[in-house]
Amino acid sequence: MPEVRGPGNEQEKKERRHFIQEKIVKRPPGRRQIAYKLFKLAGGAAIFGAVAAVSFSAVMPLTDRFFKEETVREPVSIPKDEITEPTTVPVETTAPAAAETTECEEPIEDKVQSVMENYNYTAEDFGSMLNSLRTRVQTADKGIVAVHAVQENVDWFDNPLLTTGSYAGAVVARTEQELLILTPEAAVEQADAIRVTFSDGSDVAGQVKQKDSVADMAVVSVSVSALPETTRNTVQTVALGNSYIVREGDVLIAVGGPAGAVHSMDYGVVSYVLRTARMADQNCRILYSDILSDTETGTFFLNISGELVGWAMEPQEDQSGDEREFAEIMGISDYKGILEKLSNGQGAPYLGIVGQTVTETMALSGQPSGVYVVNAVAESPAYAAGIQNGDIITAVNGKTVTSMRDFQNAVEQLACGQEVVVLAARSGREHFTELEFSVTVGTR
Fold it and tell me: For the residues of 206-253, what is the DSSP string, one character each?
């Protein structure tokens, strides 16, 4: 007989299913278990925080160095000086008025000359003048540093050997991030590391900012954050003066290393000013003096106001082959455009011609206005492009050139590695032919 499914049988099956699907619930955690978990969580958080703090402290200086300082670095600006020439005071030649002649009053110039001639100078007066110069030197010496070129070598037994050379440097600019120091190129030329010692004895690491192989000078950078607080407060910047207004007879002070040792000094007068000395890509002024100077260590010259007006150059030989006895001083005013580029880490642009402005006498012979190339420096960018001695440069990168001053300004506005067009006139049998040269700007 067929099975009869009634309501009772279905109810029993449902009850059996509910019995199989029952769940086992865990006992709620006690107070000790809750406290243990909280302690474990707090301990883990403390350990994580400590590790994060240490990691942050280690990474932060590198982050500041490679990112922050690079993005907010303050540019250095060095204003240029206008060329000035000596002015003569006109002498009054007209006869005095009748009313003035009756008074028989002595002219003021004669009074001053009479007082000066009749004044008896004493040792105290001479000492007072020396004390004034000494005060200038003491102030400027706070901006003079010793730059040490460290070289890593080994002896015969392969033992490490460190050799250092000491050079004078002058702090010529300061920003929030760094001090910029002008020093001879020899201080950085073959150095594996650079150390800078300030007048208070503090010693920190330095880095090469940029160098100029034509003028044999370089700029070294020192991070302000690396200096002790006392040094940051005492170091001085040597103000840049105007070498165009220096005249024969002016008193100059030599600081840096005139005696061959850093922080030595001397003083004297300017004997002669050569206003049109020819150098690569510029004409500049050279000051001559019998002041003690040492070009290897580095010697900087200040006026009586304590302003930097130049530095000692390598002495040039005269026609007899003998070195001149006078110190040769490169004027700072002709170098300020290049110094600004070096201080900002930029290479100084270089074409490599020694030239002179075409004079009126030269123009009467038919030569066009421009810069006469006295010498295209061998292996220079201009020489490689085909510019020759005797060519007359008339334009650089689209800018008309009528004098060496124009040429120097045009070159300073170029960028190293830039390809520019230089226009020049070359003398032929009957006339001058305009030529176009493609020159890749080099670095001094």
Answer: EEEEEEETTTTEEEEEEEGGGS-HHHHHH-----B--GGG--TT-EEE
Name the 3-class secondary structure at 117. Answer: helix
Q: What are phi and psi of 412, to 5 degrees?
A: -65, -25
Decide if 186 contacts 165 (C-beta within 8 A): yes
Asked if residues 370 and 362 have their Cβ atoms less than 8 Å apart, the reply is no
Amino acid at 236: Q
Mean pLDDT of 431-437: 93
Q: What is the pLDDT of residues 140-171, one digit of tens each?
A: 999 999 999 987 776 676 666 566 789 999 99
The reported pLDDT for the residue numbered 68 is 44
Nearest to 255 by CA among 204, 297, 194: 297
Reduced to 3 states, what is the DSSP secondary structure of residue 298?
Answer: coil
Distance, CA of 137 to CA of 304 (rounded, Å): 10
Tens digits of residue pLDDT in 54-92: 565 555 555 555 444 444 567 888 988 887 765 544 444
Q: Name the one residue in this structure whose structure tokens are 């002016």.
A: 250
| Residue 432, number of CB atoms within 10 A of its CB | 16
